[in-house]
Each structure stands twice: as structure tokens, then as C-alpha cells.
Amino acid sequence: MLNANLAELSALLREKKLSSVEMAQEFLARIEKLNPSINAFVTLDKGMTLAEARAADARLAAGESGPLLGVPLAHKDIFCADGWRTTCGSKMLENFIAPYDAHVIAQFKKAGSVSLGKLNMDEFAMGSSNETSYYGKVKNPWDVKAVPGGSSGGSAAAVAARMAPAATGTDTGGSIRQPAALCGISGLKPTYGVVSRYGMIAFASSLDQAGPMAKSAEDLGLMLNAMAGFDERDSTSLERKSEDYCRDLAKPLAGLRIGLPKEYFAEGLSADVAKAVEAAIAEYCKLGAQTVEVSLPNTNLSIPVYYVLAPAEASSNLSRFDGVRYGYRAPEYGDLNDMYEKTRAQGFGDEVKRRIMIGTYVLSHGYYDAYYIQAQKLRRLIAQDFVEAFKQCDVIMGPTSPSTAFNFGEKGDDPVAMYLSDIYTIATNLAGLPGMSIPCGFGDNGRPVGLQIIGNYFAEARMLNVAHQLQQATDWHLRAPSI
Amino acid sequence: MQWETVIGLEVHVQLNTASKIFSASSTAFGAAPNTQASAVDIALPGVLPVLNRGAVERAIKLGLALNATINPTSIFARKNYFYPDLPKGYQISQFELPVVEKGALTIQVGDEEKTIRVTRAHLEEDAGKSLHEDFHGMTGIDLNRAGTPLLEVVSEPDMRSSAEAVAYAKTLHALVTYLGICDGNMQEGSFRVDANVSVRPVGQKEFGTRREIKNLNSFRFLQQAIDYEVRWQIEQIEDGHKIQQATVLFNPDTGETRMMRTKEDAHDYRYFPDPDLLPLAISADWIERVKTELPELPAVKKARYMDQHGLSAYDAGLLSASRAMADYFEVMLPQVNDAKLCANWLTGELSATLNREALELADSRVGAASLAALLARIKDGTISGKIAKEVFAAMWAGEGEADAIIEAKGLKQMSDSGELEKIIDEVLAANAKSVDEFRSGKEKAFNALVGQVMKATRGKANPTQVNDLLKAKLG
To answer: What confidence score (pLDDT) does residue A457 get?
Structure first.
């Protein structure tokens, strides 16, 4: 059962082979066993989980049905969930019990899924290795010496280790796709605006997007069906007709044009990752697709642009954590400014402070034009690259990350080296495009490799179709770590 | 040396929407602390702002009334600073692209008309309140006001005296209450004025260094603060000091301004466009729709009162100065059918009574229809103007409507000339001395006789009729 996909779990419930409570208990037992070594969960609350499962069982007994009704999931600790401690990976919110549900949480509640707990993450989603969490780093289930990726590292590790059948994540510069790749699971970052950000603790508002993380493209589609949709509480949420993201899964790929950006296969890409990605593309050609070389000439600008814009927004978004109304407050302080300074100095970790300082700097009088405005202009150029590329192809493919999972501490002292590991994922956030990662093999060290699929705006159904077809032809997505 | 004062005003107009500018919480004044503060208002993690359309509509109204440009696209920006009553650590405001730009407001000072340019009007949210009393060395935070919609209206430095500044503030106040976009309640902070004040030698082109007086919540304080500030600045300069750019506060108890901070410790607000809000788009259709909902504005009303009702510029100006006054006047007019009589009573007896009791027109104990009924009795000759004042006093005291009081007190004018003649004969007989004086050419004696007749009739006689009858009898 622990390896079952969402449809199979739903069938078990529907056919009354298991109750939702029993199913949740099995996953909780697995979590109890593995979490001490993986550290994917920061908050578990058996009582709340089983209460949700009992409610789902009641709905099932009343004849209600639905693809997620009674199915257990776990949520990245960036989503406020009524009654659950919501830490965002920070000491700042160590004792914060959210008094309301994020849109994503409310949608899953409506669908009847059961929350197994809250998942570890880089502090305020700032990190690519899960080393910045105040609650300890998450270990990669494929190799506990390796990072799981970040910032949704807890989500990726929990799914990879089969502690949860699927999980939610968020992606500001690759935070769904990179950990999905490093942990050998599937993850999708939708088009900006498809999933409401209401109740999702903001890192960089113009880039943040929630998405599903699961074992297969089909499961991602089922999750996205629940998550997506217009929400008037988020002004950047898009008012579109709802769609079934699974509708095209079975479509054949004949005639699919795959764009291969030459910048994604250039210097900096590990040979073993390149090999696995090329093999996957060869598989696509067997399925009837053609490849075309495209260019995203401003790829190299995406990291500097991102590291101006994201910290700028973050420096402002994180101002509310001031010790006045909720969250951490320094135990001893002098005057008001001292309270602010001590609270924030003690409550935030180093990476968060680094980005607040960068952000404050680039927005300061005299620097704003040179950094923030300039970065906004370049952001448009980066988006324009994709517009041009999509004139020649239906989807873009390449590696998700330049290497397989690196070891803990490997990049810890060098933030720029860490930032570079997001080189292939950041541009899609800057452009607002949907992107996903699916497993496509293993590197020389036996750690998973992710294939990135980037689609045009609102092409999620098409991307899931493309991913699903590979998963019909190969079994990379079914490989699980032996722990 | 002769000095010239230069003043520009920034007015925070609180918009009277039922809910806040970015949340659904109520904006009602006076609720228990923090009972009108939602998750959005207290800036819980993860919450997002959603713009209140009603606030935008009110901004469009003011833009139209100021003949200003209403920008088809304007941008909400974040103004970043830390303060305990600013829950997000930033205020959502408009910075580079405000909703309204380049308008003008015509004011009247004495007989002079002057046009003051309005630079811009932008939408923003109010902060909460820090309460320093009652907490024994600690500070309490009330976030009920946090997120209340404000329209900040910024003028050019076009005013040259405190009188002009007050006239501008009053005219703007009348305008926003006319438009129905603000309740105008200055005590509750619905209309707050910051005054930028500088002085320069007459004839000098460059402006002097300005100091900004913050948060003036009455026209009187505005006048006092500017007058004090101007005297202070002139003294400083004449004593050889330089004026330092600064923000100051006015203390109504001492009548003085006091420095709050200088430009050196001004914040770097790190403005940038708020990524949680899309640019505000206002279509031409929307503007047209709002235009059809605009009420008649003061300047148009004033002209109409002069043209249609033959009122003087002075009277028309007073009657159109506030929406309450104009509405009161327009209820009365069709019943009385004498604009001048209405104007005299509104600006005379009624205003004097309200002033004496420190009441607003809205709180008048005599409503427009009741006063009109009283004036109608002057018009039809039932009572004299003098008796009407007595009746008005009784109405004010709550003794009832005009007709009932006239009846109960027997104040009806004598219309029976036989009865009046009898009284006149008695007066003439009792005042032989005055009669002789009149006959010997003393005009004054005639007035004394009129007075005696009026006294004998207890004011109920029609003075014109008394004149005529007396003349006939003495002639």
C-alpha cells in the first residue's frame, strides 16, 4: 500500500478494503519509523490526523466520493492550516498556531484528503538544500549523506521515503522541481496565478507558486485538480475556467516538438545528469516526438536577476515578523528598536538575514534604479526568450538541476555556488511559466536525476500528458530508495 | 524686511467605505480595540490584500470634481518602515503613479477668487493606533483603524497666507462631503491636514526651506499653527538662523509648534510596487459611469443660486458652502418661495443659534421643513419678522411647530383694522404730548407713536398698516 498511487489508494477506500483511519495509521506508523532518520516532518499531530480521517470516513460512509476523499497527504509547513503549528522552517514561528486555512489547505479539506502533518523546509523557503531549516536538515532517503534539495525538501523526502503518498510544495526559484529531482519524485510548479497564494507564507510574492509533489504525473494531475482555481482573496489569482488536468494524460505524443535549449546543456552540467536526460529525450523520440534546438540567451542573467528581485520582495514580506503581534519576541530588550533588532537577530537564520539585507540594499534610495528597476527590465527579456522559443516547440526539456544531490556542507559556505544549482529552474519563475521535474535515471553515485519539462502558459495538462507518457514507457518513477 | 508665506497642504481624506481598503473588516469608528481587525489587518503570515472597489470609485469622484487627470493605470507601492501600529511593516500606498493627478480647486478669500493647483491624490491605507496611556509604561496597539481607506490630496505650494490655507481646506472639506466620499468628521480624524510652510522675502523667486506641521484636525488649529510657524520662521531668520527642513507637531494647548524630526533622520521608505496587487486599471467607461452619479458641485450650485434665485454672490456662497446647508436651503425654498428670506434666516438666526450652542447644521433642533413653515407665515403676513424670531425660539425650545405656537400664544398679526384703529385712538389720546411734537415738526415723535401702538398690540400689528393708519389720523 505504501507504494500505491493516489488512484489505487482511493480505490482501496471506495471498495472498503481499508478505512481512511486505517490508511492514515499505516502512513503514521511509517513516519514514526523513518522520520527520526529523515526528518521530513516538523509537526505531527496524530489526534488531528485521525480526526480528519474519521471525518473522511463519515463522508465516504454517507456515499460521497472523490479522487482524494480519505486519501492521506502531507503539507509543506509554509501553508497555514487552522489549528496546526505553522513554522515556515523558522524559529520566528516556532509556536505559531495558524488560526485559518490557506486556500490550498481549504481546497484539500473540501476534497476530503487527510493531513499527515507539516513538512520540513528551508527557512521561509530560502535555500536549495534544506540546510537552512531551524528544525534540522532533511536527509535524502536515497543517501542520508546527501541533501534532499530545497526548499520543499521535506515534501520530496517524505514522498520518496513513502511516508506520504503525495505532498504539497511551493516553488519560487525551483523549490518544487529541484528537490523532486534530487529525491527521484515528480513535482509540478504551475503557471503563476493558477493556484491561490492565500495563506501561503510569502517569500517572493511575484514568484511564489504552490504545486503538487508526488510519485507520478497522474498523481500530480489529481492533486492539481484540487489545488487550482480562482480565489478572490489573492489578487494575482487568475480568473479562468476550471479544467481537468488529467484529461490529456493518455494522448499519444506523435508530433510533439521538444525544444532543447542549448544553454541548458552547456558548461556546468554534470556528465551523468546529461546522459540520463539525453536518454529520456531519446525515449521521447521513440514515442514519436521530435527535438529542435532552441536558445534561451538570457539564461545566465536569471540568477542575478532573481537574487535582486526575490530578496527585495522578501525583505518587505518578512517585515511583519517583528515580535509585536505573534511569533518570536526576544526575551530581553531595551527600547522599541532594541526589541525589533534582537527579535529579528535571534528569530531569523543566516540565509534569511542575508536575503533581507540584500533586499533592503537593492531597494534603498540611490540603488533602486541600478538594481531593482534594472532587474525588472531583464526579467522581461528573460520571459521574452521563452516566447521566442515556444514559437518553435511545444515543450522545453532539459535537466532540472546541474548535478545529482550533493552532500551536506558541500556548498554551505558558498552561497553563490548554492544559488547556481537553481540555474535551470529560476527562469521559469521569472517568466511565470509552468515547469515540472520527473525522474529519468540515476547518476554515477546512484542518486536520482530529474528531467525538467517547461510548458507554455497554462499548458499544465499538456505537460502532464508528456510526463505521463514517459512514465508509461519507463519505470524510473516507480523506483524507491531502500530504507 | 517684508516676508511672504508659502503654504502647500497635504490632506488625508478618510473615505467612507463600509469596509477597509484591503480587507472586509468594518471601518466604523469607536469600536472596542482590535474588534475590527481581521487576519489581513493584523498581517498574519500568508494573508493578502484585495482592493476595495468603492475606495477607487470615491477617488474617481474627487478626481472628476477637481477637474483632474484620472490615470488609466496607477500602481500600489509598499512604503516600508517599522512601527508597532503598522502590522505588515509597510504601508500600501501609491507612489510613482497615483490614481489622480493635476487638478485644481478654486477658493474664495474675502472678495478674491484664487485657484490652487492640486498635484495629486493617491489611495492608501491608514495605520493603527498606539495607545500610550493606561498601560503603565507599556504601549497598547489598536488595529481597528489599520487598513481604513485614505485619499491623500496634495496641493502645490500655491497658498500665501493662513487664511488661504484655511479657505482651501474648507473648500476641499465641503467638496468631499458634497461628493459623499467622506463623512468630514474632523474630531474623529476623517479629514486631517498636514501643512508645509516656508517663508521668503517678498520678491524672491526661490522657496524658503519648509517645515511640515503634521496632523491638524481643525481649521482653527490649522490657522493657529501656520500663524505661529510663520512668526517663528521669520524670527529665526531675522535672528540669523537657518531654517532646517523638519517635521513638527502643533500643540493646541500652548499654540506652539514643536520639532518632531529633521530631514536627517527621515526614513528611507524603500518604495517598490506591491507584488500582491495588480496595477489598478480604470476604464473610460468606469469614469463615465461615476460621472453620472456626481451630485451638483458647490461652484455650480453657487452660480445657479445667483442666476435662478437672484441671490448675491455672498449669500449664494454661504448657502453652497456645505452640502448640509445647500440641502437645507433646497428643502425650504419651494415652501417659502423667497430665496432671499430663506438666505437671511439661514445665515442669520439659524446660524447664530447653532453657533451659540456649538451645534452642526445636521444637529439643528429645527429642521428645514419646520423652518420653511415658519417663514411661510412671514410671507403670508400672518406674523411679522420680529414675532417670527419669538416663534423660532419657541420651536428651538421644543414647543412645537410654527403654526401651533402662533395659535397657542395668540401671535397672529392683527388684520382687523377696526380693532387696530381703536387701539390707535387710545394711544393718541394717552400721548397728547407726542402728538403735539409731531404736529410741530418733530419726525421722531411719529416713531415713538408707532412704538406705542406696537407695544399696545404686543407686536401683533402689521407695522406697515400702523404707519398708514397713524399718518391718516395725524394728517
So the answer is: 98
Judge if B275 and B142 occupy the same domain.
Answer: yes
Q: Chain A: residue nearest B272 by CA? A: A363
| The pLDDT value given to residue B466 | 84
| pLDDT, average across residues B309-322 | 90
Residue B64 has a pLDDT of: 97
Residue B368 belongs to domain spanning: 296-409
Task: Give the pLDDT confidence of B26-43 residue by residue, as tens digits.
Answer: 999 889 999 999 999 999
- Based on the fold, state whether residues B150 and B278 are members of the same structural domain: yes
Question: Is B423 found in the same domain as B325?
Answer: no
pLDDT of residue A421: 86
pLDDT at B459 over 80: no
Q: Is the ipTM of this complex over 0.90?
A: yes
Q: What is the pLDDT of residue B415?
A: 65
Domain ranges of chain A: 6-255, 299-378
Q: Are residues B237 and B99 in the same domain?
A: yes
Task: Give B39's contacts in chain A (Cβ within 8 Å).
Answer: 99-100
Are residues B353 and B466 both part of a single domain? Answer: no
DSSP letter for B141, please.
Answer: E
- Which domain-ending residue is among B270, B289, B308? B289
- Residue B26 DSSP class: B
**Does the annotation count A91 as an active-site position?**
no
What is the predicted pLDDT for the residue at A115? 98
Burial state string for B117-129 with b = 16 or more CB within 10 A and e = fewer than 16: ebbbbbbbbbbbb
Do the chains contact at B270 and A368, CB–CB below 8 Å?
A: yes
Q: Does B268 touch chain A (CB under 8 A)?
A: yes
What distance lies between CA A31 and its chain's CA centroid?
20
Q: Which of A391, A396, A459 is nearest to A425 (CA)?
A: A396
Mark whether A151 is an active-site residue.
yes
Choosing from B409, B437, B464, the residue where a domain stops is B409
Q: Which parts of chain A sit beneath pLDDT 70?
A: 412
Yes or no, beta carbons of B141 and A100 under 8 Å apart? no
* Residue B283, min C-alpha distance to chain A (Å): 18
Q: Do A236 and B51 touch (CB under 8 A)?
A: no
Same domain, yes or no: B143 and B195:
yes
Q: Could you tell me the three cell numbers for A414?
A: 558558498
Contact A316 B270 (CB under 8 A): yes
- What is the DSSP-derived secondary structure letter of residue B159? B
Percent of chain B with pLDDT over 70: 99
Active site residue A401: no
Nearest alpha carbon to residue A284 among A473, A7, A120, A463: A473
B80 Cβ under 8 Å from any chain A Cβ:
yes
Contact residues on chain A for B80, CB-CB shorter than 8 A: 315-316, 319, 363
Total structural domains within chain B: 3
C-alpha–C-alpha distance, residues A100 and A118, integer Å: 15
Instruction: Please provide the CATH number assigned to the domain covering A6-255.
Output: 3.90.1300.10
